[in-house]
C-alpha cells in the first residue's frame, strides 16, 4: 500500500517535453498580436492616425492584448516544463534557467499593462474631457512606447535563458545536441538583436533573425519525439 505522502502520479520526462511543446504552440498568439493587430493599428510617427485606428478597432486591439497575455502565460508553463525536462541534466542550472524565463515573463506582463492604459485612454469619456487631442495622442504614444521598451528589455533575460537552455540540451543524452547548438545561437541572436539599436544603430543586423528558427526546430521535436523520452 502506497504511503499517503507519495505522489499518486508522476510526470515523466516525456510528458514534460509534450507540455513544453504545447506551451510553445500557444505562444503562436504573439505573432497574431504583433503582425495582425499591433503593427496594423500603430503607425510609427503618426500619433493621430494611431489613435484613430485604435478607436475604430477597439475589439481588435483587445484581442491583441489577449494574444500577448496568452503568450506570457504559456511562458510560465514552459519555464516549469523545461525545468522538469532538463532537471536530470543539472537540477540547479535547470532551475536558474526556469527563473530567467519567469523574470522575462514578469517584466513582459508589467510592460503589457501599458496597453491596458492605452485602452483606458481611448475608451474613457473622462480622459477625453481631461486631455485635449494633442495631449491624448501624446499619452497614447507614450504608453505604446513604454510597452515596446519594457518588452524589449525583457528579451535580455530571454536570450540568456535560451543560451542556458541550449547548453542543458547539449549536455543531455536524450535530446539531439544540434538543437542545443541552435538554441545557443538563438539566444545570442535575441541579445544582439536587442542591443543593436543602442550600440550599433547604423549597422544592419537583420540577418541575425535567421537564428530564431532554433525555437521552431525545438517545438517540432518536442511534439513529435519528446513524448517518447525515457530517462
Describe the protein in words.
This protein is mostly helical. It has nine helices and no strands. It has one domain. Helix content is 77%, strand content 0%. The radius of gyration is 21 Å and the shape is elongated. Mean pLDDT is 88; it is low at 1-8.
Overall tally of structural domains? 1
Order of helices and strands: HHHHHHHHH
Q: How many β-strand runs? A: 0
Identify low-pLDDT runs: 1-8
List keywords for this structure.
single chain, 231 residues, mainly alpha, 0% strand, disordered N terminus
SSE topology:
Layout: H1 13-26, H2 29-41, H3 47-56, H4 58-86, H5 91-123, H6 125-130, H7 133-171, H8 177-199, H9 213-224
